Amino acid sequence: MVLSEQELSVVVARLAAEISADYHGRDLVVVGVLRGSVIFVADLIRRLTVPVRLDFVALSSYGDRVSSSGEVRLHKDLEESVEDRHLLIVEDIVDTGLTLRYLLTSMQTRGAASVKSCALLDKPSRREVDTRVDYVGKVVPDEFLVGYGLDYAQRYRNLPYVGVLRRELCES
Ligand code: IMP
Ligand code: MG
C-alpha cells in the first residue's frame, strides 16, 4: 500500500491548507487533468478555503500501456478563458513530466496571471523533462500505481487507496 484511505485524507488536507494559505485573497481556477485526477481534485477542492472555479482538460501520453509513448495529445480543452486568472493544474501523478510541461506551457501562452501545479504523487526518478511541481502529496518510487483515480488500462480507478499494481497483472 502506498497511501491508505486515512493517509490520503491527511495528505489532501495538508496540500489544501498550503494552497489556501498561498492563494489567500485571490480567486483560483483549479484545472483537473482527466481522468486520473478526478477523485483527488474532488477531495482537494472541498478543503480549499479560497474561492474556486473548476475546469478540466483531458490529455493522454500513455494509451493502455504501463510506459509512456512520449506523445501528449489534448482530447478536451478548458471550457472557460484563463486570461488574467490564477491557475492550479491538478494531476494524479507526474511521471516523465511531459504532460505537465505541455500544460504549463499551454496555459502560460494563453495569458493566465499565474500557473502552478499540484500532483498527488511524484515519481521524480522517471523524469524526462525538467518540470516544476509546486505542491506534491507524496514522492513515490518507480512502480506502477493504481487506485484513487489512477488506472491501469482504465481499471482500478475506484480503489479508495493507492497501491502498487502486481507485475503479473501488467503483463497479462
Ligand atoms: P507523464 O506525462 O509521463 O508525467 O505522465 C503523466 C500521466 O501518466 C499521469 O497523469 C497518469 O495518468 C499516467 N501515469 C504515470 N505513472 C502512472 C502510474 O504509476 N499509474 C497510473 N498512471 C500513471
Ligand atoms: Mg492515466
- The geometry reads as globular
Taking pLDDT < 50 over at least 5 consecutive residues as the criterion, the unreliable ranges are: none
Separation of termini? 21 Å
Number of E-state strands: 8
Oligomer: single chain
Q: What is the count of helical runs?
A: 4
Instruction: Give the name of the CATH architecture.
Output: 3-Layer(aba) Sandwich
Overall pLDDT score: 93
Q: What portion of residues is helical?
A: 25-40%
Q: What ligand molecules are bound, each kind once?
A: inosinic acid, magnesium ion
Number of domains: 1
Please summarize the sheet with the most strands.
6 strands, mixed
CATH fold call: Rossmann fold
Structural class: alpha/beta
* Whole-angstrom Rg: 15 Å
List the helices and strands in order.
HEHEEEHEEEEH
Spatial strand arrangement across the major sheet = 3-2-1-4-5-6
Report the β-strand fraction as a percent range.
25-35%
How are the elements arranged and paired?
Elements: H1 5-22, E1 28-34, H2 38-45, E2 52-60, E3 73-76, E4 86-94, H3 98-109, E5 114-122, E6 135-139, E7 145-146, E8 163-164, H4 167-171
Helix pairs in contact: 1-2
The protein binds inosinic acid (IMP) and magnesium ion.
Inosinic acid binds at residues 33, 36, 61-62, 68, 91-100, 144-146, 150-151.
Brief account:
This protein has 172 residues and is α/β, with parallel strands linked by helices. It contains four helices and eight strands.
Notable traits:
six-stranded mixed beta sheet; 172 residues; binds inosinic acid; Rossmann fold; binds magnesium ion; two-stranded antiparallel sheet
